Amino acid sequence: MPYDPSAFPPFAVTVDLVVLTVRRHALCALVVRRGESPYQGRWALPGGFVRIEEDLGAAAARELTEETGLHVQGPDDRHTGAHLEQLATYGDPGRDPRMRVVSVAHLVLAPDLPTPTAGGDADSVRWAPVDSLLPPGQPCGDGPDRSGGQPDPLAFDHSRILADGVERARSKIEYSSLATAFCPPEFTVGELRRVYEAVWGVALDPRNFHRKVTGTPGFLVPTGGTTTRQGGRPAQLFRAGGATVLNPPMLRPDV
Amino acid sequence: MPYDPSAFPPFAVTVDLVVLTVRRHALCALVVRRGESPYQGRWALPGGFVRIEEDLGAAAARELTEETGLHVQGPDDRHTGAHLEQLATYGDPGRDPRMRVVSVAHLVLAPDLPTPTAGGDADSVRWAPVDSLLPPGQPCGDGPDRSGGQPDPLAFDHSRILADGVERARSKIEYSSLATAFCPPEFTVGELRRVYEAVWGVALDPRNFHRKVTGTPGFLVPTGGTTTRQGGRPAQLFRAGGATVLNPPMLRPDV
DNA sequence: GATCATAGTCGTCTGCCTGACGATAAACAG
DNA sequence: CTGTTTATCGTCAGGCAGACGACTATGATC
Fold first, then answer.
1. Domain residue extents for chain B
2. Most buried among A60, A248, B14, B148, using CB within 10 Å?
3. Residue A115 has what pLDDT?
């Protein structure tokens, strides 16, 4: 087919954000309430149009800051912000009833924050446990059809996008040190373990987990300090080390 | 920001294809020669515009068939075609000098074929060893800058896309049965091992490999036949089993 | 036909890692 | 002081991977 730049079909390109955090032992996602039709009043993932001279990742970072006040972690500074990566692109015709919209979804992993307090708009944004947004136990990934069940709590195809983002997070903390993105700059082994337990929805043996993470070179570096903020015996504080991949990986029970 | 459908910035949306196969012990990618400016005469990944009422995956499958004659494997029929999955989306402003193009790259893993024989156009399409297309040893993925070195052999940002696709294939055959997508419908353990060796660029121990793949339930199912097409002692023929994930994974040496 | 080269297949052994779980340490609450 | 909570160290058995040895069955070569 000839490549005719003057005759390309017009698309709208947006970014949608799956922003995950761990709050009170539960994996939570950031959702915003839609003020306009379609899906008015329904919850949706934050997102917006990509500007005409803006890179996709920059658009995602901008929307994240606009809607949550979160900042993305730069390549050098460690743990002053959130982790952002591209997730997947959703372009089914008819996913937006108004026009042809291709949405480049991004995944953000953030430490627990006081409260989103959106850009001016207050109670139209909140952290929602992913269990309350997704039918539990549904892998949802590439399956042919997952309809049937209670009605979709999220607008558009955002349940599908959220499910894909959650699955990416669940698998990625297996073989990378990304779980530290859910933690504050300094954290204990127990806090990191509770991140794994919340994301995977399982209980892990504290002793084996401690052996694994402290025995993996470059995963954790002790800061020297201790804390008792979790109660019990004082625990060592760590920062995330330079390692990005976990080899061998952290093993998720069953599966 | 208000969501104004009438004022969205116009984008062109394309699909680009990273089509990989294994030929003569080498991982090869499908490239086409560009007939028009820009990058006229340079090699590029196959691809084209998404039609206005077409899903992204359907566009990728259509371009694949148009440019190579390959067909995508349906969810039910096993190994009558190639594996296709979405890879990532590239939307840097200026990646196409003519206009703002967002390209949704897809990854295709195909068995070795007689010869592409493009849509009418003969020698403008070929299999090229990825070692000849990419600076060897460059991970290339999300690194800040990989310029410096010999000039880029591929048009646009296609070297980056190809590198990302190759890295995806390399990591995915670790923990999935996707390496069988490089094999004909019936294949031997040795042929499968040569796939791993070509994709990873390493030598694997035939005995340990045999133990691993035949010992993983659901990975391979014997067809009862044997073949001597590789020389030596006759080898059992297998088909791909129903398993899609390898747990525990196939371990890549060093890394 | 004997010999060689090539591939395939089955075992063995050792070391590492994980899961299961006992035991101890150091804080706080009553 | 006692019980509770959390952290941390140790031990032990089983599974799996890497390193190889050994044997089998074909085709090629002399």
1. 5-174, 176-240
2. A60
3. 63
